[in-house]
Amino acid sequence: MKALPTYLDLGDVWLVHGGIDPHIPLEEQTAQQFCWMRDDFHAIDKPYFKDKLVITGHTITFTFPGVLAGKLVAGQGWLDIDTGAYHPQSGWLTALDLNTETVYQVHRLHHTKRILPLVEAVVKIDPSVVKAKRSRQRVS
Fold first, then answer.
1. What is the rounded distance in angstroms from the CA atom of residue 92 to the CA atom of residue 111?
2. CA nearest 131: which of 44, 62, 60, 66?
3. How far apart are CA 60 and CA 131, in angstroms?
4. Residue 27 pLDDT level (bands cut at 50, 70, 90)
5. Percentage, residues of the chain above pLDDT 90
6. Phi then psi for 53, rounded to 5 degrees?
7. pLDDT at position 123, please?
8. For the residues of the chain, what is the DSSP string, one character each?
């Protein structure tokens, strides 16, 4: 596992487990940032890359304010596709075909399947909503 990459750069798409620390240059980031970064990345006001979409997992999409289980979440230059297959509040396992912009999902509990155009599967989220969520968590 240690020999595996912590991200995959596909040209116009950048795959990473957790996110990117928006406060540190990319070449200085560690596996820790790539695996565990969440709110600071999701709250960015402009895309991290000018010419790439960052696709993440790690943060179950229904934990974003106003997002229902099974939906994907898009922010400023990023797309989160972790729909929480293992979680009892969701159960949706998601795959994404970027070439056709198609989302494939199967529900592990109900054994149902669905195929959706990406545009119908995604909820766009305002960075200020993520920032507000983060502020509330720090106060609690």
1. 10
2. 44
3. 17
4. very high
5. 86
6. -95, 130
7. 97
8. -TTS-SEEE-SSEEEESS---TTS-GGG--HHHHHH--HHHHT-SS-SSSS-EEEE-SS-GGGSTT--TT-EEE-SSEEE----TT-TT--EEEEEETTTTEEEEEETTT--EEEEEHHHHEEE--HHHHHHHHHHHHH-
Residue of 132 and 47 predicted with greater confidence: 47
Instruction: Using the predicted structure, report yes or no on whether residue 35 has a pLDDT greater than 90.
Output: yes
Judge whether residue 138 has pLDDT over 50.
no
Tokens encoding 45 = 């006001």
**Is 48:20 a contact under the CB 8 Å cutoff?**
yes
Query: What is the rounded average pLDDT of the residues 67-86?
Result: 97
Do residues 8 and 95 lie in contact, with contact meaning Cβ atoms separated by under 8 Å? Answer: no
Contact between 61 and 71 (Cβ < 8 Å)? yes
List the structure tokens of 41: 């990345």
Strands 7-9 and 72-74: unpaired
